[in-house]
Amino acid sequence: MSDNKYTLAPTEPPPSYEAASQPAPPAPGTSPKPPILRAPLPLNLPSLNALRNQRVILASASPRRKVLLAQLGLPNVTINPSPLPENLPKSLSPFEYVSQTALQKCMSVYKTEINNTALGEPALVLAADTVVVSHKGDILEKPRSENEHIAMLKTLRDEGVHRVYTAVAVMAPLESARDPGYALETVVEETIVKFDGAGEIPVLEVGDSFMRFADYLNSVTDDLILAYVKTREGADKAGGYGIQGIGAILIERIEGAFDNVVGLPLRATLKLIEKVLAPEEEIEEAFAEVEDE
Fold it and tell me: Percent of the chain, pLDDT > 70?
């Protein structure tokens, strides 16, 4: 595979802040166009630089995760979704459910691609899984019908806060013959989300009487939920909404990482990548410490 497909981190100093704030100049011989925002330079980090001319596989069909990886500095990942069904028992805790699902996805694709004689072994395989958990503890995945979609959003609104869990699993082959032949790291991130006005019944004093204005102050009305469901934006998303899109109108606040709700916590993902790509002597030391405990 040709290396020139990939965008390498620049070796020259970045432009001045004054230059970076200016729109890109038009190409010679062309008429001026509306200002185009300059794309940020790639992160110049050893782990990311090592991957930019290598084969990196995202074991997920999620376009949002691909976009997030591009923001991290890996725009040319190969999409290779795991064929395994996501059918673990819902009796598992949300943490176990999402963690095991991401790990199964990652290992399934890794085992297939590590012996790919045509393309060679991948430098990295990354998988992720996201679930939304209601206040009562029910695991909510993608809605399967319009009625289920409406009921799901009403539940999230009426119960108050809910939690979003995203598990990330990252694998990389080792050059040594040390069993099992790969480095593996996983993490689960949690974000708390509250719909606008969820679960609140405000009371307003008027003279000597009180009047309830729940519908007036609760902006996530049944009509708004129906209108949002009709957009179909949330049809392919756990919990039935997209916080990075129109679904933001449903949200009052979050506690935790925004990109975790989108489907890939970048800070945690970068840490995993750095761990599995660490020099093998460091990995050996880490394994030795675990065995000694």
Answer: 74
63-72 and 266-276 helices, crossing angle to 10°:
70
Give φ, ψ of 186 to 5 degrees: -135, 160
Spatial distance between the Cα atoms of 128 and 264, rounded to a whole number of angstroms: 7
By three-state DSSP, how is residue 73 classified? Answer: coil
Torsions phi, psi for 2 (to 5 deg): -70, 135
Token digits of residue 248: 């933001």
Q: Which residue has the tokens 């409406």?
A: 150
How confident is the model over 71-130, as pLDDT tens digits?
A: 998 988 999 999 888 888 888 999 999 999 999 999 999 999 998 888 889 999 999 999
How does pLDDT run across 242-272, given as a tens digit for each residue? 999 999 999 999 999 999 999 999 999 999 9
User: Residue 285 is encoded by which pair of tokens?
Assistant: 């030391």
Q: How far apart are alpha carbons 181 and 176 in whole angstroms? A: 7
Are the C-beta atoms of residues 285 and 84 closer than 8 Å to each other?
no
Q: Which of 60, 184, 171, 65 is nearest to 121 (CA)?
A: 171
Maximal CA-CA distance, the chain = 81
Q: Which residues are catalytic?
A: 129
> Cα 99 vs. chain centroid, distance in angstroms?
14
Q: What is the pLDDT of residues 34-83, one digit of tens each?
A: 666 667 788 889 999 999 889 999 999 888 999 999 999 898 899 999 98
Tell me if the pTM is above 0.70: yes
Q: What is the CA radius of gyration of the chain?
A: 23
| Cβ–Cβ under 8 Å, residues 248 and 225 | no
Contacts of 15 (CB under 8 A, 6+ apart): none
For 54-67, letters b (16+ CB in 10 Å) and e give: bbbbbbbebebbbe
- Note whether 107 and 175 are within 8 A (CB): no
